[in-house]
Amino acid sequence: MTDIKRPSRRGFLKTSALVGTTLAAPTFFTRGAYAQDFCNNPTGSTVKLGFNVPQTGAYAEEGKDELRAYQLAVKHLNGEGDGGMLNTMQPSMLKGNGILGKKVEYVTGDTQTKADAARSSARRMIEAEGVVMFSGGSSSSVAVAQQSLAQEVGVVFMCGLTHANDTTGKDRRRYGFRHFFNAYMSGQALGPVLAEFLGTDRRAYHLTADYNWGWTQEESIKDATEALGWETAELVKTPLGAGDFSQYITPVANSGADVLILNHYGNDMVNSLTQAVQFGLRDKSVNGKDFQVVVPLYSRLMAQGAGENVKGIFGTTNWNWSLQDPGSQAFVKAFGQEYGFPPSQAAHTCYCNTLLYANAVEMAGTFYPPEVIKMLEDFEFDGMGNGPTLYRGEDHQCFKDVLVVKGNENPTSAFDLLEIHKIVPRADVTYDSQIPQFAGELGPYEVEGGC
Amino acid sequence: MDTTPSKNAPLSETERVGPAAKEKSVFYRTSGRIATQLPPRGPEMAPLWPPKADIFMTIVFSAVVLTMPLWLQPFGAAYPDLMQRFAIFGIFAIGFNILFGLTGYLSFGHAAFLGVGSYAAVWSFKLFSLNIIPAIIMAVVIAGALAVAIGFVSLRRSGIYFSILTLAFAQMCYNLAYSVLTPITNGETGLRVLSDDPRIIDAIFGTNEVPVPRAELFGISMQGMPGFWTSAVFLIAAFVVALLITRSPFGMMLRGIKSNQVRMSYVGFNTRPYTLMAFVISGMYAGLAGGLLAVVDPLAGAERMQWTASGEVVLMTILGGAGTLLGPFLGAVLIKYFENIFSALGDTTLRSMLEFIPEGLRDTAIAIISPFVGDGWHLTLGVLFMLVVIFMPGGLIEGFRRIGRLFTGGGRKKENG
């Protein structure tokens, strides 16, 4: 019925030879593409940076603001706009002509607030787009995952917003740098203020986002408050991005606790705080004291989301736009001119970290990561908000003043939501890099067989 | 190029009966064994096993997979991470197709096996060795064991009840990994390989002291292209095994179950062991895929087990063509391409791509296109999926076959005329 066409012996040999060559070809080409002195060495007249921020998920709001800050930083580095913090940063080698004379370009990615997706997105930037540095993220689990990747491939990662102790603690990496403050500092800064306003005889109930940031913040705040003489009633973990927290808040009322500590961030904090207020917790009186809510890590974006409910609530923040130092003012002005509203703390930390990286490259005179890293380590600078700041070499953590803030009772504008209650000096929040909560290893400078 | 024999394939019973009877396979009992072929039909016939078309298909498939770094270049997808994903999710979808495509049992919980495979592989990296061989073995075995347990319970029901049971089990696994089993899975943070892990096998050979732990195969780091070549070899092997299963009497049994399970049992077969076997095999495929995900990037997160991941593999299989051999791989490539490339297209890239359009029209064009790229890639995928399901229920493979028929069919008419 049919004649089956069989390949001849000659045909078969020809085909196998062809297939063999095609198989060998890609290894040949890719080897060529990867043979360079270090990963993604920029050889042209431009240099590419990767900005990996959450555009979806519980932290999407912070992510969008981070992206705005990155775009502004790129503008300023390339000498467009008014220069922002380039004019106030001390010491600075940035001239507004790009980095090492190369024009800065950037690519963006979506971390989806998931470690898996963030790494995949980062690998696309490194492997397909050839970025020489990547940055961003608004979750510590994502930061830690990306930092590990940075060490594996040998490309510098400048952390975005990440507040867990682990990022510069047990999961610190040579190729990762954090400008943001951390949970331990929050505890140290917040403790005395809580003692002053809420007293030393309190029972605290913790609701904690169930991942590394939540865990370390809970630990740090618990340690700090128990040192004041507080008791801890209960520690409850809630899934990230839960949306509805009513099932976690209902038991609080009957637990005998008189303080609710929300170790939540982003939309989670907006939802849990709003529900806590709706359930009437703040109007209650337990053990003869007013029931209080504390949000250890605060941001203006969250305050905006939670609206009226934040009034009078204490917390800490890395930076706030109402700071009056020249660096902060320059940044707020540039950001406001560009987008029409003041930046968040997430935007601030991402902007600073990008400039700090660019400056370190200028100082090193090369993009070669080990040299850049050495320039960032123990770099002492000023004029970027928060006063004199040290990028400590032992753990790649920035040490600077921490702000204790309070939800503004009488806001004068839609953005005037946080009132700076106290600026805790850097010396009060500095700790040894090898205390038990933080002990870790940075790893090597040179990465062999990276990308 | 799929399970139904093509024109130049040796004749099978199904083709003789004609396309109308495509789904119905014919079985013969020869001295107690099941056979799918008639006894030898005379000297003029070519040997039936292995069919030439299958060998040809395997060679073409291997060539296509191994030349991905070349032909993906124009699509901007020829970088290791994405190609690894193509290969790995190809394995996942091919394995899923063994269950769904052959037996018709629609599992909505296959991501559980993917996730368990990843966790098993990462634990193997942590406890035993950074070598990928024990990791892959552990991933497959543990995913297989879980599949036996879940399959044993779920397969007591069929149809929608089976789907719901598997979905429930997978969500249970996800929630366990996410919160209850945090000491084993590290919850939301994800399980990573650390430089101070014990790695007892490596310790015996004195190679456990590494500054940056990476999965390796006897010294070859699995990062970048080697990771892709490894995944590609596994994909080809997985494809060949799936091909052999499909063509085997066992595969025929599975297809018999799909076409009419009641009849199968009336004829005297106990179908449960066969469906369980298919379930376990596809679970092991998922475990292999999960293990490979951990090999190319040693991190396992709970979100791999979420129901969206289970749904994704169903989409891949249906989009490509359920029941076909090449379809699931095609679907996997397409979906992963959309997820990684389309999602990264912003307005600025779009603008530079559309430079050839005159200024005035360009903004309109961008306004029309932009909701479908970037954040809106799901929308494009959704539209595509709808179109495929409505107009080509057999998936992309059916589309290709129709195009093929357009040419050959046209030719035949002329000859006839």
Q: For the record, what CATH class of the largest domain in chain B applies? A: Mainly Alpha
Strand content of chain A: 15-25%
Q: Work out the helicity level of chain B.
A: 55-70%
Unreliable stretches covering 5 or more consecutive residues of chain B: 1-24, 411-417
Overall 3D form of chain A: globular
Tally of contiguous helical segments of chain A: 13
How many structural domains of chain B?
Answer: 2
Number of strands of chain A: 17
Mean pLDDT of chain B: 83
Stretches with pLDDT under 50, minimum 5 residues of chain A? 25-36
**Computed CA radius of gyration of chain B, to the nearest angstrom:** 23 Å
Largest sheet of chain B: 2 strands, antiparallel
Structure description:
The complex is a heterodimer of chains A (451) and B (417). With 451 residues, chain A is of the alpha/beta class. Chain A folds into two domains: 213 residues, Rossmann fold (3-Layer(aba) Sandwich); 134 residues, Rossmann fold (3-Layer(aba) Sandwich). A seven-stranded mixed sheet of chain A has the order 7-6-8-11-12-16-17, with helices on both faces. In chain A, strands 2-1-3-4-5 form a five-stranded parallel sheet. In chain A, a hairpin with a 7-residue loop joins strand 13 and strand 14. The longest helix of chain A is centred in the N-terminal third of the chain and has 26 residues. With 417 residues, chain B is mainly alpha-helical. Chain B has two domains: 249 residues, ABC transporter involved in vitamin B12 uptake, BtuC (Orthogonal Bundle), CATH 1.10.3470; 77 residues, no CATH class. In chain B, helix 4 packs across helix 15 and helix 11 packs across helix 12. Chain B starts with 12 loop residues before the first helix and ends with a helix. The N terminus and C terminus of chain B are likely disordered. The chains are: A alpha/beta (451), B mainly alpha (417). At the A-B interface, helix 1, strand 2, helix 3 and helix 4 of A face helix 2, helix 3 and helix 4 of B.
